[in-house]
Amino acid sequence: MAAPAHTIITFNNVVKQFGRFIALRGVSLDLSAGKLYAILGENGAGKTTLLRVLAGLAQPTRGTVSMLGTSDLRTVTREIGYMAHPSMLYDELSARENLHYFAALYGISKEDRCASLIQTVGLDPALSRPVGQYSQGMRQRLSLARALIHDPKILLLDEPFSNVDVRSAREIASLLGQLRDSGKTLLVITHQSDLLAEVANDQVWMERGRIVTPEERE
After folding, report:
1. Closest listed residue to residue 176, CA positions, set 151, 198, 202
2. Using CA of residue 113, residue 116, residue 120, residue 121, what is the dihedral sign?
3. Segment 23-26 long-range contacts (CB within 8 Å, at least 24 positions apart)
């Protein structure tokens, strides 16, 4: 019998305001370790802001966020892998060169780590052409490898299936399930919830900056 999952992320009445616009409206949420959460909702619901707060890229206006037992998220940034909606890749570099650059930022110098990750996400480590010539599916795979380069415990993924063909999207979804099974915690924003139907442990619905139950959705 598996041990019960422990809480790894807690939002406590979190408000995030940009001028007069309130992106998060009193969000309270507990997330367990080793699970994959699908973050769902319409555009403007607050999903990306939720991830940016966790990634330390936006500070709550009010309320608190704790992760891995601390509310000082700066101390746990190395345990977070963030795949933003833009790929954040360098088009003039190859896949290997991109990963070498990001590995160096984390003080990781092992060549085999980069090659292994490229293969893990379904790309060819020997492919030398620049990323600017990649298809969208290939770019998304490499962007996921970039987020994994430092072996984080928590993965925050913003629309990993965006503009990706159906076959590639299903392969990426399967890989996310494998990452969950390896013990990582994943928060995945998507408008294609069917792709995560077989791997998501739970769904978090957002509407106008709030967490809502399926019954409360308009």
Report:
1. 198
2. positive
3. 23/49, 23/209, 24/49, 24/50, 24/53, 24/60, 24/209, 25/208, 25/209, 25/210, 26/63, 26/210
Burial class (CB in 10 A: 0-12, 13-18, 19+), 202: exposed
Distance, in Å, from the CA atom of 167 to the CA atom of 164, rounded to the nearest integer, reads 8
Say how far apart CA 191 and CA 213 lie, in whole Å.
Answer: 17
Say how many CA atoms lie within 13 Å of 21 toward its Cβ.
Answer: 7
d(CA 108, CA 86): 24
Q: Can you give the pTM of this predicted structure?
A: 0.93
- Sequence-distant (6+) residues with CB within 8 A of 136 are 162, 163, 164
Quick one: CA torsion of 61, 64, 70, 73, rounded to 10 degrees?
-20
pLDDT in tens, 101-153: 999 999 887 777 899 999 999 999 889 999 999 999 999 999 999 999 999 99
Beta carbons of 133 and 57 less than 8 angstroms apart: no
